[in-house]
Amino acid sequence: MLKIENLIARYGHIQALHGIHLEVNEKEIVALIGSNGAGKTTLLNSVSGHVEITGSIQYNGEELRGRKPHAITRKGVLQVPEGRHVFPGLTVEENLTMGVVVWKGIRLTAGNISEDLAYIYESFPRLKERRKQLAWSLSGGEQQMLAIGRALMGHPKMLMLDEPSMGLAPLVIQEVFERITDINKTGIPVLLVEQNAALALSVSNRAYVIERGRIIHSGLSKDLAEDDKVREAYLGKRKPTA
User: What is the percent of the chain where pLDDT is above 90?
Assistant: First the structure.
């Protein structure tokens, strides 16, 4: 699916990513964990075409580097940004319909808008209850559900999520992550950026640890969760000794 090789990203003269190698395979949830400023969001924005890069980003064998963000979106690689970025003056339903990928008045993805809305409302019942409500009036958790639902309206072939737990109450986090795993079970691979390392490792198949723009650990999530260095640095605890 997604294969990143020797990715270098810059903001002007500042280099943010240093030779990143990362893969997301079919039906996987792959977590990217690390501290603030480590380069997690920059990596997602690089895949989405928003950052100047060198190296290679291939999706299903097709090179994405150099493509415009809208062209990458039309390939089915969709990003839910940090901070949700819903349209506050639009209703929930209007926000959702903004997720439909349209080019010159023609819908580029298969499906029926009414059927797609029904699927979103089934996945996120609270959005159905608030479908006529303006987005600014929603809680943080509801806005996160709305942002994910809006991406699903575009029929993603791969979903990238940036800090979906940020600012949410524990019970809401649990609900949001249950929906993320449900989405993955439908066959959509997920690249999950998440500062809550324990949560990210608990729902993902594999994970990468990024620090200062470099991947410093990678492997099966269950193995990283038991790694002493990872536990101490990102989980706040060491593995118990006998």
Answer: 72
- pTM of this prediction? 0.90
Return the structure tokens found at 172: 């809401």
> 1-76+157-169+188-242, which class in CATH?
alpha beta
CA torsion through residues 190, 195, 199, 201, sign: positive
Q: Which amino acid is at 50?
A: H
Handedness of CA 135, 103, 44, 10 (dihedral sign): negative
Reduced to 3 DSSP states, what percent helix, strand and coil does the chain have, rounded to the nearest 5? 35, 30, 35
pLDDT given for residue 25 in this prediction: 96
Question: Domain boundaries in the chain?
Answer: 1-76+157-169+188-242, 84-155
Residue tagged 């159905």 (tokens): 128
* Rounded Cα gap, residues 131 and 145, in angstroms: 12
Per-residue pLDDT tens digits for 210-231: 999 999 999 999 999 999 889 8
